[in-house]
Prior knowledge:
Elements: E1 3-7, H1 11-23, E2 28-32, H2 40-48, E3 53-54, H3 59-62, H4 74-79, H5 82-90, E4 96-98, E5 103-106, H6 111-124, E6 128-130, E7 135-140, E8 145-149, E9 155-157, E10 159-162, H7 174-177, E11 183-189, E12 191-194, E13 207-215, E14 221-228, E15 232-234, H8 236-244, H9 246-251, E16 255-261, H10 268-281, H11 297-306, H12 320-331, E17 333-338, E18 340-342, E19 348-353, E20 358-359, E21 364-365, E22 371-373, H13 387-403
Parallel strand pairs: 1-2, 1-10, 2-6, 10-22
Antiparallel strand pairs: 3-5, 4-5, 7-8, 8-9, 11-19, 12-15, 12-18, 13-14, 13-16, 14-15, 16-17, 20-21
Amino acid sequence: MTKTIIIGAGAAGIFGAINIASKTPDMEVVVLEKSSKLLSKVKISGGGRCNVTNICQEPKELIKNYPRGNKKLIKAFEQFGTIDTVNWFESRGVKLKAEADGRMFPITDNSQTIIDCLLNECKKHKVEIITKVSVESIEKTENGFLLDIKGAEKIECDKILVATGGHNKLEAFQWLADLGHSISEPVPSLFTFNLPKSSITELSGVSVQDVEVKIAGTKLSHHGPLLITHWGLSGPAVLKLSAWGARILHEKNYEYSVLVNWLKTANEEETKQSLTEFQAQNPKKMLFNSNPYQLPKRLWEYLLIKSEIQEELRWNNFSGKKFNKLVNHLIADLYEASGKTTFKEEFVTAGGIKLGDVNMQTMESRKCPGLYFAGEVIDIDGVTGGFNFQAAWTTAWLASEGMF
């Protein structure tokens, strides 16, 4: 009997194991997991609900959510995309639902539903899972591979699927570099912005539905919901911007300036005009009691105070420097960021096996035939919204097809 080893019992590893075992019943399929836990990221994803995938279906649109991978994923998603993921789970009794923002969850709103489905499939197809097994190195042999296991006997196999996930240190990829692979240095992605010196943190809990966030001095910008936290700025707009700017912000040592347009796309001229019109319609009202933009009350008051506007000031007495200051704070509100805070539920690293070393049709290594990759161990990462899991399902499925 031939043997395939999957290294890593996360989403990509388990999904790959199931698809390999279901296609080749005579194959011995064994998953080796370094820790004592299976599918740990699946468990905590989406606040414990598991954001399985996204409703976005068109590959050309789907790839826009991958800062690393992007165009090289088009053909991969044409072969196994979000619809295929939905069908795969639904054909096994797990129905998914889409939310307003496009994220898809099991209708149970419980990640355990996904875990149970995957582990039941492993059992059904006789996939063996062994935990607390650490692979230290891989040796290519004439007929396959020899795996050096920490504190145990070496394991022989015919083919290998590496699905060890992302790592935050370059040294963690050394055993794969030893086989001739090039590694993109891992850096954090999907993190929130720390504003240690800003009083805006006093507004913790306040959210705005659609703002534009920019990194000053770069072309990086993103719009969407923003959440003010007790340490700084979070929410989809910030997390997505951190993903696209992962390498640039790393190079800046996480010291950078953030510009927030609280009015999303309004420019200086439009904002001056809208304030002037509101002023003409509400001359006797006090600024603190009348908000032209439906911004949260606490945020509006914060921006007025930041613009040095007194609490009793009325619109008919509002002009000059303070008028211009408010305009500036509404559309180009400046904050100094220092450091980062990991968004633990969706923690992702940018980096891993360079895509040039992988046949993106089969996920087979170009450096070591018979060795395949799936998931975040490759230099592919997506923004928040189910895109990282989709990349895991897709690459694992392609590897299972490419092997046999």
